[in-house]
Amino acid sequence: MSDYRETIVISMGGSLVVPDQIDVDFIKRMKDLVRHFNDEGYQIFLVLGGGKTCRNYQAAARTFSNVTDIDLDWIGITSIRLNAELFLRIMSDINVHPKVIERWQDAKGVDEPVVIVGAYEPGCSSDTDAIEMARVVGANRVINFSNVSHVYSEDPKQNPDAIRYDTLSWDQYRSIIPDTWTPGLSTPFDPVGARLAEESGITVAILGASVENLEAYLKGHDFDGTIIS
To answer: How deeply is 24 buried, as exposed, middle or buried, from its count of CB atoms within 10 A (0-12, 13-18, 19+)?
Structure first.
């Protein structure tokens, strides 16, 4: 039986870590937040995305006709591993698990208060990895922390009248996103992870890029975002 108040899985968009260049100020604030919630008795799994590094490399690869979706996913996996290694080293003065966890099966029994998660297989984004981790460690909720603050009925950049949702069922959410995964797909939460979360009864909170907003959600205060359950 875990001694932690709760195990929280955070799927952190790589675009927050590497929007163009590595955002050191953001990483410092994220580290302070993780340390704070560790002190409060929470265990935190940080699942990293690939960010701009991933998209730049995938864009270059797409210019070659022989490159497949599987190839593009492997490029994404490698960029995620780089971001995960960065966070592992940065968190070394906290009681962090000594290696990046890549396979969700390897998370079973991990007891350190901070665990950094990478990626290991094609066919989905880090969102799916976060749900798989939540299933293994018994977490009931996953936080999607990225540059997307809410779920909308349509892309609000294309349609300013798009409806913004505060809460959605998984059926409702899946009706407004594509059915299948493609590398680089831009949705608040990927379709593979969405199906798995629905099957597993896991709630996902879509939050924006504000560390303060994430803290408000974790503390049970008012926050901006969409809850999917």
So the answer is: exposed
Token output for 179: 């059915």
Split into its structural domains, the chain has a count of 1
Which residues are CB-contacts of 59 (< 8 A; sequence separation ≥ 6)?
none
- What SS3 state is found at 213? helix
Q: How crowded is the C-beta side of 54, counted as CA atoms within 13 Å?
A: 31
Burial class (CB in 10 A: 0-12, 13-18, 19+), 25: exposed
β-pair partners for 164: 152
pTM value is 0.89
Establish if 102 belongs to a structural domain.
yes
- Structural domain contains residue 211: yes
When computed from its CA atoms, the radius of gyration of the chain, rounded to whole angstroms, is: 17
Per-residue pLDDT of 54-92, as tens digits, reads 889 999 999 999 999 999 989 999 999 999 999 999 999
96: which DSSP letter?
Answer: B
Distance CA 91, CA 46 (A): 11
Residue 105, domain member (yes or no): yes
Amino acid at 68: T
**3-state class percentages of the chain: helix first, strand second, coil last, to nearest 5:** 40, 15, 40
SS3 assignment, position 147: coil
Using DSSP, state whether 6 is helix, strand or coil: strand
Which residue range(s) make up the domain with 155? 6-228
* Amino acid sitting at position 30: M
Q: Residue 1: inside a domain, yes or no?
A: no
pLDDT of the residue at 208: 82
The CATH code of the domain that includes 196 is 3.40.1160.10
